Amino acid sequence: MKIVVDDKIPYIRGVFEPFAEVVYLPGSKTTREVVRDADALVTRTRTLCNEALLAGSAVKFIATATIGFDHIDTTWCEQAGIGWTNAPGCNAGSVEQYIAAALAVWSAHRNIPLRDTTIGIVGVGNVGKKVERLCRILGMRVLLNDPPRERTEGAGTFVTMETLCKDADILTFHVPLNLEGEDATWHMVNREFLASLSRKPLLINSCRGEVFDTDAVMEAIKSNQLSDLVIDCWENEPDLSLELMQKCLLATPHIAGYSRDGKANGTMMSVRAVSRFFSLGLDDWQPHDVELPEQRTISLDGTGRDSENLLREAILATYDISADDRELRSHPALFEKMRGDYPVRREFHTYTLRVTNVPDDTICKLKKLGFHM
């Protein structure tokens, strides 16, 4: 048995060796010749799993250690008898942390309390649900838009896109990239969408770059239809629009889901999927030795400070999103390297808070976010 593994997938080295010949390669270097006699691929988004790569190969199963799977030609694979799986929800907590940090920076930049804002969440799956929970903890008014869920569950929980465009101060997108059909999301944010906005909102894209029409968004920010942009996912990555980057409040290199927790979860789900498919006995495997931050204790003094300032301090102590922004602006040509060599970031549950004069209601919110006391 032979398994080809993207060498940037963490915690996976040595796992399959007792059962298979394992070849570790960068996703961009995975070729027809390499996969010709492979039984399985374990990939990330940079490996295009399609007929051009897989025709005539022995591949029976593909596991991508990512939420997204638009790099897999699922229709062709299914017709060719090749099974596949992704890792839904693996980095939902990481994206929640990213959105929390972005909102913390934006509210301070604009001097707008988050509790006085309305956020519209487009796409309320694994990630969107986490973001919804976060925003309710932060005291924000939350509007949800998810047509597939609405068709299944009814309209009670959801609002129309027209309502979001009318009422939301912030719009954050957590949808898959669907190129066609009733729920197409390619260029969902286009000139027509942007023209319908009422409140000059903050727009956040941490899902897929192609959900935003770059030219239309550029026109909108230049013409004052938007207050701010936070963009993590870009059209034509890694060749992002430098002009659009300069217009962003925060610009990051597609790392919203790149906490060590999210990566470990994605690896775990992929290993278990391959194990189940080939009956390897690794169905309960978990990664070990996940790196920890240098400082896991955060001290908070609530003297003379309100809840929102304390929440902001705690959130940004776990993740300095502005450092990622500065790095991308300084070296945009190193987009892929920044992703491949991304430093250790751990989620809220890794941290313990030491609090002084912090009100009980704020402590309750911090605990709900995942912090230990």
Write down the overall geometry: globular
Q: Quick check: average pLDDT?
A: 96
The H-level CATH homologous superfamily of the largest domain, spelled out, is NAD(P)-binding Rossmann-like Domain
Contiguous runs where pLDDT drops below 50 for at least 5 residues: none
CATH fold-level label of the largest domain: Rossmann fold
**What is the C-alpha radius of gyration, as a whole number of Å?**
21 Å
CATH architecture of the largest domain: 3-Layer(aba) Sandwich
What portion of the residues fall into strands of 2 or more residues? 5-15%
What is the percent of helical residues?
A: 25-40%
For the secondary structure, the number of strands is 13
Count the domains: 3
Sequence of secondary-structure elements: EEHEHEHEHEHEHHEHEHEHEHEHHHEH
Distance between the termini: 48 Å
Count of discrete alpha- or pi-helical segments spanning 4 or more residues:
15
Biggest sheet character = 6 strands, parallel
Q: What does this molecule look like?
A:
- With 373 residues, the protein is an alpha/beta fold.
- The chain has 3 domains: 2-86 and 259-278, NAD(P)-binding Rossmann-like Domain (Rossmann fold, 3-Layer(aba) Sandwich), CATH 3.40.50; 92-251, Rossmann fold (3-Layer(aba) Sandwich), CATH 3.40.50.720; 297-369, 2-Layer Sandwich (Ribosomal Protein S8, Chain: A, domain 1).
- It contains 15 helices and 13 strands.
- It has helices at residues 32-35, 51-54, 74-79, 92-110, 126-137, 147-153, 161-167, 191-195, 214-222, 242-247, 260-278, 307-318, 321-330, 335-340, 360-369, and strands at 2-6, 21-25, 40-43, 61-64, 83-85, 118-122, 141-145, 170-173, 202-205, 228-231, 250-251, 297-301, 352-356.
- Strands 7-6-8-9-10-11 form a 6-stranded parallel β-sheet, sandwiched between helices. The chain has a 5-stranded parallel β-sheet with strand order 2-1-3-4-5.
- Helix 2 (51-54) links the parallel strand 3 and strand 4.
- Helix 4 crosses helix 5 (126-137) and helix 12 packs parallel to helix 15 (360-369).
